[in-house]
Amino acid sequence: MSVLESIPHAIADGPRERSLGLRWWLLIGATCTVLVLGYLLSAGLIALVTATASNAGFSPLVVLLAALPGWLVLHQSALTITGAPLSVLPLLPTAAVMLLIAAASAWVARRSRLRRPDQAWPVIATMGLVHAFVGAAIALVLAGPFRAVPVDAFLSCGLTATAASAAGVANRCGLIYLVWERVEAEVWSGLRIGLLALSAVVAAGGVVLLVGICASAPDMVASMARSGAAGDAIGTSLLSLLYLPNGVLAGWAFAAGTGLSLGGLTVQPLHATPGPVPDLPLLAILPSQEGPGWSAAALVLPLAAGALVGFACRRVSGGVSHRLLAVGVAACVAALGTLVLAQVAGGDLGGGQFSPVSLRPLELAAMTMCWIGIPAAAVTWLAGPVDFEEPVPAGGDTAEGADPAADADASETDSLPVDADDVNEDSAEDAESPADADGEQPSTSDVDAEPEADAVDPDDFDPEIPHAREPLSSTRSAHSEIDPSEFDGDTGSDWTVDEARREAWTRDGGQNRAD
């Protein structure tokens, strides 16, 4: 190997090492930012409640200290307040924190150009472990009225952050593609339709909650009036707002027929057992006596959700068995999601007459599978598949030499999930020829194409070794010597030149050379 051939590899080692270190700094910075923003969110909510309360004095130091157990609440870590257990925690701030973690993980993966599944685990593991150890540390230092079990804090904070981070990098790093290429087509369709079924479950629960709020609006206003001053009413209203996702899940449990229980209170579509409830505006929608007969109309919503899933499964290619398999997978996905959410939404509420709060997760998951699977199977069986009209070629019914297997492969490739951000970035990265993140040595022709996104270090702007141009006597065409990576314009445009313009250019060039 000559000296000139070894120079690009030697020069490329430094930027690659700096790029790897820069990626770790990006990950550490994003993780710390998420921790700080979560703490500020907790402190902001506590400051709003204490500032508007009538008999509470506002102290910044108290707010900052109270934000530590509030941070655990954001990650669904159970607390003990003056000896009373509290594990029925609001889901709305938890959803906000998970979206923040997912967005930060996706940003790190995009800036670091992580594209393979084996490149995703450092981001997921870092987010999960850092949140887990921070939660355990907060649980260890808590004193006074607030207590938390360190092991519970470690698991709850770590699992919350891990799930959110995995969702953020799943598409970017090919985790979704990894599942897609390892399952059958009908199973993949069932997984996608299962997300639709879970969305239908949430929508049905939201409809039940909305109807309950509209029907119990006077009772909710009376509950806020009993709070006393305007600041106390703001606090109870804010608390009810944070528990809205819990109310949506309770609405689905009511519509599915399993109902919910709050201490001695039991609420079902066809039966209700009265009992005491906390004086909160959101809980004013719970009936205090035997349920009315019109509440049985809520059972129509699960049927509609199952029918929607059935119509979606009609588009699955193959025979009846393939469509029914997609229905089964979709029902399992909806049941599993409902089981997890119902388990998280329930728990202890002070350990007194209002405890425990239960959505009956196992019964709700079984009923969800039945409500989704049975109507969907009936619809996809009776209605049959959707007929897709294939366009007939103009030259005849079937072109000679056409390969049906190739067409099937092309259709499967088209169904592959694609991220819009990846499409925009791929067009730019094709012109830049970036190297892989695991330190692979670039070739001599790839040294000039240093990744633009990684060029945040001023040292990366070192002089580059120019390409060795071929002599003018080469047989290569003139337009093939143009390197698209040397320009900032659209590299995907056509470089062909009109024949008349080329002849004119050649003629003018020849005259200039003659002159």
UniProtKB/TrEMBL annotation:
InterPro entries: DUF6350. Keywords: Membrane, Transmembrane, Transmembrane helix. Residues 390-515 are annotated as: Disordered. The chain crosses the membrane at residues 24-49, 56-74, 86-108, 120-141, 153-180, 192-218, 224-244, 251-271, 291-312, 324-344, 364-383. The keyword DNA repair does not apply. Residues 419-439, 447-463 have a biased composition (Acidic residues). It comes from the Bacteria. Residues 393-408 have a biased composition (Low complexity). This is DUF6350 family protein.
